[in-house]
Amino acid sequence: MKRRVVVTGIGALTPIGNNVNDTWKGILNHQCGIDLIQSFDTSNMKVKVAGELKDFEATEYLDKKDVRKMDKFIQYGLIAAKEAIKDSKLEIDSINHDRFGVVVSSGIGGLGSIEENHQRGLKKGFDRVSPYFIPMTIVNLAAGQIAIAFKAQGLATCPVTACAGGTNAIGDAFRNIRDGYLDVTIAGGCEASITPLGIGGFTSMKALSESHDPKHASIPFDKERNGFVMGEGAGMLVLEELEHAKARGAHIYCEMVGYGVSCDAYHMTAPAPEGIGGAKAMINALQDASLEANQIDYINAHGTSTPMNDKLETAAIKKAFKNHAHKVAVSSTKGNTGHCLGAAGGIEAVLCVKALEDNFIPATINYQNFDEECDLDIVANHGRKQVLNYVMSNSLGFGGHNASIIFKKYGEE
Prior knowledge:
Its EC number is 2.3.1.179. 33% of the residues lie in helices and 18% in strands.
């Protein structure tokens, strides 16, 4: 018999807040975390804006010695995981460490450390790069450092599926608990790719918005959208087997009930025609949860603000939801945060958990121009109070990776 899985802790570090409460306040207040890039000089670059963290200092959360050994993406992931564990009130020493896992994604890993050490190598010789260069850089080390910090000795892994990674991580963790392999898992994603090379690489492939207006750059589903805006940060959940959570008197935010995946197997960056792959992931998630489409109240869309994604995700929702497609609320919070790549699914899962808790649907902010190819109920500009029972979160990544997860308001039934 499949076991029930619940969310007992959440943590976030985003362009609109350095913890869950501040991030959620930013959502409630329709805050845009996108601004002119501060971390490096963009005077010779086409792209000028990004969703950077604000007033963030890693040493306020982590020991100074540890910070020197970690790339920013690892720092972000560990800080959000610490918040989630604290929120869960999990007593680490009293649980079975062999059944405690970590599934944390990053799309790119330690890009900043690669750039910094390459420059150092050119100046001083490549034998003089940091001895921590490799563990700062490799993508699995966020999961590894989190596992070390909390003595998680079960499965510790890192799905690397580009912008679907955070959602795949949460889904994979969910399955491992539901199928009996783990009791508790820290799951989510982290990313820190707002660097000259990161911005330059996405600019070169024409993926980023070149708008210099922070309020008119990440505009999901808007007819004038012209590319995504890079964000950074982390989002983490503590997922727990229901009886394990009840036995320790844990606060239960909600239940996780469905996970669906698919691969377009079509193109390295472009989505499959008519959103076929995204639709399959949503259908698979609904089937996994034994739900009908009309039971979903809200979809947190991938909604990247690129011409192709938003059009084809709209088509995918229509394929998966049929007659219910125009009745379900669909919004993208990337107008608030930008696109946080491998962290996006983790951050957006946290927002879905908060949406269920508060019965509040986040808005698609900065929306101005209707697009007939994106004609769903996108909750434009103003969030909506509405009773929510089931919410879905979508993530679609380069390589054709598609992932959908479903959360349910918790009940004893």
